[in-house]
Design brief:
single chain; 273 residues; Helicase, Ruva Protein, domain 3; Rossmann fold; seven-stranded mixed β-sheet; 20% strand
């Protein structure tokens, strides 16, 4: 054994660049262990192959690749979801969307999750409430493959997947809830070339010149697919609340929702049919 290849030595070197949390997360992935094992086995010696793989993962992170894509997972609402570069990385602020939905769903409700991506929203609802029936919709075949694996893990009995561009392939059924985290960044926004967004699928991020083209489509079609009294809830950008309120009013949706995230930003809007 050489000192450079112990768990403690590997973590010390990587942690100086990545930070303690990310360094430990990536090493847990390589070794297939939990945090308790790392703490108890600082003198253990990973194999040469493991050490080499670990250094490679760390190098990818230094180059800016999101940890979620390197590890292949991201925690959401207390569950571990598989992710890939085919889907948006689940974010903590989106959990607000789930909480608001759970407050409004009656027993046995039908849910339509538009642009499901990894499936984290719809699958979380289905996992939290076994009485729900959730249809997960996405136009991307690669995204649906990711969602299918997550659905099989967390809610195989009450989720269904459908390939569709928004409502296009959805049949005539009506739903108690339509929920979505759609693309809402303007095409010309400089943030698309920064940070994690550089690696995420552009189709899951950008939506026209003002970032509202997909939200307009979702709102305008909602009444056709909602049951009387059913809800539409969706996430949007930090500066889009007023525009979304106007679109909801124009569509005739009532009891408008405008809920703030933990940072005090209106992050979720919606209305009732």
């Amino acid at each position: 054994m050489t000192p450079e290849t112990t768990v403690t030595a590997l973590l010390a070197k990587a942690g100086a660049t990545l930070g303690r949390s990310e360094a430990r997360l990536l090493l847990r992935q390589v070794l297939g262990c939990d945090e308790a094992w790392l703490i108890a086995h600082g003198d253990a010696a990973p194999t040469v192959a493991q050490a080499t793989r670990y250094r490679g993962l760390c190098a990818r992170r230094v180059d800016g690749e999101p940890v979620a894509y390197i590890s292949g997972t991201r925690e959401f609402y207390g569950r571990e979801f598989a992710v890939s570069p085919a889907v948006l990385i689940p974010r903590p602020e989106t959990e607000l969307l789930v909480e608001l939905a759970l407050q409004r769903l009656p027993q046995g409700a039908r849910v339509l999750d538009l642009g499901t991506g990894s499936g984290c929203i719809g699958i979380t609802l289905a996992a939290e409430r076994a009485d729900l029936q959730v249809l997960l919709v996405d136009v991307s075949a690669a995204a649906l493959e990711v969602a299918r694996g997550n659905a099989q893990r967390w809610a195989p009995a009450n989720t269904t997947l459908l390939s569709s561009h928004w409502y296009d392939a959805v049949d005539g059924a009506r739903y108690h809830l339509i929920i979505s985290n759609p693309p809402y960044i303007a095409e010309g926004d400089a943030h698309l070339a920064q940070g994690d967004l550089r690696f995420e699928p552009r189709s899951a991020l950008a939506a026209g010149d003002d970032g509202l083209s997909d939200i307009r489509h979702i709102i305008s079609g909602a009444r056709e697919y909602l049951l009387p009294g059913g809800w539409l809830l969706f996430e949007h950008g930090h500066d889009q609340a007023a525009a979304c309120a106007a679109l909801l009013d124009a569509a005739g949706l009532r009891e408008r929702v405008a809920e703030r995230d933990l940072a005090g930003i209106v992050r979720v809007s919606g209305g009732r049919c």
